[in-house]
């Protein structure tokens, strides 16, 4: 089994490189953001993206859908949106004297929920079942969404008027929250050149079936038990910082991260190791992904807000206080590969 896995590794790496190359032919810069989008795709997670308009968030998801020959839908969240606009509803057909089910735009591979915090809570909560269960229930009948299925929701950090805070239960269902910043001056020069020049389009380089196979292959990566223990200690330290000598942080944290954070640290860390061409996860994979996985799960106190203490500041303190385990021995990886 180990020999078969080794032979498939170059083909897997080559396919991921082709997908990333096609995206970068259209999207300039944003390497961190692109990597997180691919991690969410491989780990079957959902992404919450915060950034000002015009940073190629929609273009990235649309280009990825073209590269994997998947379906893409964009929903502009507004205050007058209702749940049926997302998941679908039952429509009465007078000619046939019967009800027919009309499925909503969530039935796609890649769903962009643009400015999700502009819709009221009941609309935001309509995404809960489809994000967690990957199915929608209409009139007592369940309808599964296509596979793969990833929700990428965006938030605008500038405008807060007319917005609604996301329910904690929904925020926790996002695997990562990624902060997207402005491009560099050189990157912006290339962006202007491409947009004002000949339009570029991504070529299909994979199929959704191949992507599903990559997701299954990603799940086979070896995770040392000490890394799972490390992830749990990181998350536990956000709830009880005094256990790792950070008692001063307790006044800044109202609620720490949930157990989903521990799970997502391992899932996302495994996908990151997969993208980096390894068959096993290293401590730096978990450390690298930790801010994106934990930042939206921390509920800060008013004291933290008044002193401009950010979730990333707390996460960096925790990462320094919790020692990382030694890297897994290659012999352990070889043993795991033969199972």
From TrEMBL:
All copies of the ATPase AAA-3 domain together span 46-176
Q: Which residues form the signal peptide?
A: none
Q: What is this protein called?
A: MoxR-like ATPase
Q: Source organism lineage?
A: Bacteria, Pseudomonadati, Pseudomonadota, Alphaproteobacteria, Hyphomicrobiales
Task: Name the InterPro entries for this protein.
Answer: ATPase_AAA-3, CbbQ/NirQ/NorQ/GpvN, ChlI/MoxR_AAA_lid, P-loop_NTPase
The ChlI/MoxR AAA lid domain covers 253-317
Protein's organism = Devosia nitrariae
Q: Please give the coiled-coil regions recorded for this protein.
A: none
Any Pfam family the entry gives: AAA_lid_2
């Amino acid at each position: 089994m180990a020999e078969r896995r080794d032979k498939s590794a170059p083909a897997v790496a080559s396919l991921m490189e082709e997908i990333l190359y096609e995206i970068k032919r259209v999207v300039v810069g944003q390497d961190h953001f692109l990597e997180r989008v691919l991690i969410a795709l491989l780990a079957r997670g959902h992404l919450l993206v915060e950034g000002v308009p015009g940073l190629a968030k929609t273009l990235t998801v649309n280009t990825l859908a073209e590269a994997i020959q998947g379906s893409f839908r964009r929903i502009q969240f507004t205050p007058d949106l209702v749940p049926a606009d997302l998941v679908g509803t039952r429509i009465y057909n007078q000619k046939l004297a019967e009800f027919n089910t009309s499925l909503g735009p969530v039935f796609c591979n890649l769903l962009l929920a643009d400015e999700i915090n502009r819709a009221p809570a009941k609309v935001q909560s309509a995404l809960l079942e489809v994000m967690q269960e990957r199915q929608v229930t209409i009139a007592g009948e369940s309808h599964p969404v296509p596979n793969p299925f990833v929700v990428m929701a965006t938030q605008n950090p500038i405008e807060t008027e007319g917005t609604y805070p996301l329910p904690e239960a929904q925020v926790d269902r996002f695997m990562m929250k990624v902060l997207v910043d402005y491009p560099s001056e050189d990157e912006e020069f290339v962006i202007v050149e491409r947009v004002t020049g000949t339009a570029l389009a991504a070529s299909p380089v994979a199929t959704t079936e191949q992507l599903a196979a990559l997701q299954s292959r990603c799940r086979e990566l070896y995770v040392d038990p000490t890394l799972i223990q490390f992830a749990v200690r990181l998350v536990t330290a956000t709830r009880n910082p005094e256990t790792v000598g950070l008692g001063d942080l307790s006044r800044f944290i109202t609620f720490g991260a949930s157990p989903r954070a521990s799970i997502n640290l391992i899932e996302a860390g495994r996908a990151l190791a997969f993208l980096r061409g390894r068959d096993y996860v290293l401590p730096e994979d978990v450390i690298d992904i930790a801010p994106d996985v934990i930042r939206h799960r921390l509920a800060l106190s008013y004291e933290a807000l008044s002193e401009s203490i950010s979730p990333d500041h707390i996460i960096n303190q925790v990462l320094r206080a919790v020692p990382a385990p030694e890297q897994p021995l290659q012999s352990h990886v070889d043993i795991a590969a033969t199972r």
